[in-house]
Amino acid sequence: MGFSDDDFNDEELREFLADVFSRTGYDFSQYSVSSVKRRIARIIETEGLTSLRQLWSKLLTQKSFETMFVESLSVPTTAMFRDPEVFKFLREQVLPQLVDVPLLRVWSAGCSTGEEAYSLAILLTEAGLYDRSRIYATDINEEFLNKARTGVFPIRLMTDYIVNYLESGGSEEFSSYYTSAYDRVLFTDKLKRNIVFAHHNLAIDTSFNEFTLVFCRNVLIYFNQDLQEKVHKLIEGSLVSGGYLVLGEKESLPRSTARGAYKQLSKPFKVYQRTY
Ligand SMILES: C[S@@+](CC[C@H](N)C(=O)[O-])C[C@H]1O[C@@H](n2cnc3c(N)ncnc32)[C@H](O)[C@@H]1O
Predict the structure, then answer these.
(1) Measured from the CB, is residue 82 less than 6 Å from ligand 1?
(2) Which residue, 39, 162, 202, 216, has fewest beta-carbon neighbours within 10 Å?
(3) Residue 215: beta bridge partners?
């Protein structure tokens, strides 16, 4: 019988996460309990362990395991032009509003392995805005960031990415954005040049710039209500007046958001404009 998330209770999890925080500085205490529990149970099982206590001993004795552990609590799932209709909406309705912005700062918060940032670079290129854009793509997970920085992706993913690109209203030759060799593609330096990948933990780090466009998609779903509200305050403090916020399909603004602080541009898209 394998280990399952029923094998420890919420109180044990809470104490364990407090210990993890004091040892590693990573605070998972406000991540959604069910998601963290499931992930921890999976790690215990794949490591051949039988309890949280054994997991804690392994964390204490093996530094390399600590990194692996922290990273396996993050969920990498992503894709280029994920939810292509949102990119289409941005392409058609939002980017034309930004033609007069002298320096366009864009933040991809929780960027995973970089697909979102490269999609934004393509979108901005095609809108004629990329030369004066900077994309700051951040994540808690160093391993994802290192992958993102290489700009190298498996060629097999391109079939889906091209479909998404076309559905997003793209009409260029998608393969002109990369060179391919064997089973990989490498995005061009031209596309990479205005993207900065950096470590940033939404749970504890502060705002680091002012942005005209913030993407924070499919990250907040893993946080509890308090942490979601905290991150929303951080985003609000990082958006210029009139700036745009894009959330994931299943995400929305928290109830605590001041009335009238944002307007949703067009339902069902989770694209909001800051009104003040
Ligand atoms: C499911 S991916 C979403 C990727 C991309 N935004 C998208 O929608 O395709 C969630 C990402 O959030 C990152 N993440 C989780 N907790 C975070 C935190 N506290 N600060 C920054 N990034 C975090 C994970 O490492 C992961 O890369």
Answers:
(1) yes
(2) 162
(3) 108, 246
